[in-house]
Q: What sequence folds into this?
């Protein structure tokens, strides 16, 4: 049986798709393709058991099984978070909290700008002149909350 004959059997085609997706997940891990691969595997097994399914039903079954696998996976990852050596890795603003920065546009009536690294951020806080140092205490709506250092 050559590859084209394998693909002619719908259940085997779905299982091959599941294997390809699982291998893609291993090569480029993103913790997502594995759930789609599970949906394809469920569809492949169901189609092997009941070969009379038409393509529309198979696609619907694939979508439903994949959605169910994603829902179960999301729930599992929410209940079992993966520990990280750097939990603030993807939260740039949280990494800024506590840093002392320089005011580059005076904070007047609660609004101004501060220099963070090589960029400038809008800032909210008490009136502060240019050149003064302030500490970042938080952030909201893309603006940093600051207080005198």
A:
């Amino acid at each position: 049986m050559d590859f084209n004959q394998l693909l002619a059997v719908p259940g085997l085609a779905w299982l091959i798709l599941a294997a390809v997706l699982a291998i893609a997940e291993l090569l480029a891990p993103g913790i997502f393709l594995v759930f789609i691969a599970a949906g394809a595997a469920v569809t492949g097994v169901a189609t092997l058991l009941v070969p009379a399914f038409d393509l529309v039903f198979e696609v619907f079954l694939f979508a439903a099984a994949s959605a169910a696998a994603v829902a179960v996976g999301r729930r599992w990852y929410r209940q079992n978070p993966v520990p990280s050596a750097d939990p603030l890795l993807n939260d740039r603003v949280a990494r800024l909290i506590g840093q002392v920065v320089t005011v580059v546009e005076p904070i007047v009536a609660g609004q101004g700008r501060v220099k963070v690294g090589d960029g400038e951020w809008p800032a909210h806080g008490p009136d502060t002149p240019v050149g003064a140092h302030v500490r970042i205490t938080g952030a909201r709506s893309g603006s940093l909350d600051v207080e005198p250092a």
